[in-house]
Task: structure prediction
Amino acid sequence: MPPLSRCAIHTITTKSWSLATAVDKYRAAGVGGITVWRQALEGTTAKNAGELIRNAGLRVPALCRGGFFPATDAAGRQAAIDDNRRCIDDAAALGADMVVLVCGAVPGMPLRDARSMITEGIAAVAEQARQANVHLAIEPLHPQYAADRSAVSTMKQARRICEQIDLRADDGAPVVGIACDVYHVWWDDALEAEIAIAGAKGYLHGFHVCDWKVHQTDPLNDRGLMGEGCIDIPGIRAWIDRAGFPGFYEVEVFSSRWWGSDQDAYLAEIVRAYEEKT
Amino acid sequence: MPPLSRCAIHTITTKSWSLATAVDKYRAAGVGGITVWRQALEGTTAKNAGELIRNAGLRVPALCRGGFFPATDAAGRQAAIDDNRRCIDDAAALGADMVVLVCGAVPGMPLRDARSMITEGIAAVAEQARQANVHLAIEPLHPQYAADRSAVSTMKQARRICEQIDLRADDGAPVVGIACDVYHVWWDDALEAEIAIAGAKGYLHGFHVCDWKVHQTDPLNDRGLMGEGCIDIPGIRAWIDRAGFPGFYEVEVFSSRWWGSDQDAYLAEIVRAYEEKT
Result:
């Protein structure tokens, strides 16, 4: 059973709660971390949010999310870079270890071109991240989102971008790495091998869990809690552990069904699913 | 512009039409082939259907579909093999060039195990197909269907199964090959290379077209006509042509939206989308 101290919950998972409520509830539930989505910072500042979270004794593995680099014109690409710069600033002020990057895609744009723009965009902001002591984590998204959300669909594609940029922090660790989310990559026959490579190269920045329901009513907001779907989450976590991953197991669930339920009972279910099915 | 003589339409595309109606309408529209789904044979026999189609001057690239080999027990796997044997018999009686295989998956079963069962299942029926002069075409399905429809998600996985089985017809051509459907494989960065390999090895048995709508309302039945989505279909067709594919460009569209529309107007749109966007 994974220790609760290594559990972090994404604020989007219980998105009706304010940041302050989420911090209180997560702490009371005994989890060790909270990953903050940017919309949870509305009405406060990243610095104040960071203090609130630190005072509660929680850590912040990540700020979600930057990315969306590809665009059809230079102005759009620059706007994305500017937004990612603000995101890195916020992550530093918040005290987050990393910014998670949902890399983006433009319908009809060749995926290869989109991946080039993604690489260029990350390269443009990586030095700022290095100086801010913030990691950048490329999150490969399931191929069902390749049209408009991420031209990076696999761990291998993410790894190649990390290798191309190859920027190191003072301690020698790569600034740009990967957030591995079981929902997005469970189907990939290269997953075990790529997790091992990412671990060996220091690219394994984040690990997200939820589950793939066999019959989804919605491609975005019908994800399952761990155990509600078909992913062998403990198996993938074993690969992650074997690769030397020291970070949080982050629970990130988009679910209209769970969002519409009693959120205290839901949090209890999250903890149960984390302990028994992760 | 691809010639209409190389266009085949899947009966499922206009599924409210009887087989006789579909044959009449497709012929009148000038297309060269019809791929028959098994449900279109209800109320007739494969032999009679084959005569009906031949008398209309149409060819039959494929019977859809066999497959679904993985099962949790031996009886289930044998039932799948028996069903595939019937499907091969029907394809031979119909005069179809191939049986398309949607290979199957069982929620929670490791995909690797499922692929082993798929390979065993295909191997068990391949000799019968050879003797019947019917090809078998593995159709890799999009990873969104990996949980319950196909543990074969990529051209590369399909190709490896072809290589393992490696059964040849009297003319030396492989019995087991691949049906490449743009909807399922467009996102794969290995697609161009795998099409070339499949062509060189004689595995390119079928080529299906439709389109990936960026915002799908349903993961099964909201596919687009060519041009309605984000796939570079002419680009993929150029790879297919370069690989020496001599067969039909088969239009296979699952769409509640189009099924609910006037089917004669829809057929005209199919022909237009085939000529202008394929």
Q: What stands out?
A: Chain A has a mean pLDDT of 98. Chain A has ten helices and eight strands.
